[in-house]
Amino acid sequence: MVKIDFSKEPHENCPSFERCSTNKCPLHRNFKSLENSPEDRKLMGWKRCRTSKKVRMKIAKAFHLKTLGLSDKERSNLRQSIRMKQSIFSTREETNENGLNANVREGLK
Known about the structure:
single chain
């Protein structure tokens, strides 16, 4: 369980904050404006955020962060997953009582 201290910034509540070397922290309030410098990869062995997605999302929810504590790639994957689930459920709703999809029925005529 992550203890959240509202007197600190969201990224400072991260359990990995003290030993983290990531410049672009997903828990930072200005995450979208932050950049990783190309030198970081060479000099510091640049890494992504080490904290689990579940912990980051809990901290982000407590601070009402728009990024949800997710990296750009994680948010993109989440949006894609939601779209896929919506399309699956919408095609299930179109299925008639005989078990045929409305689009398939049209093709059979």
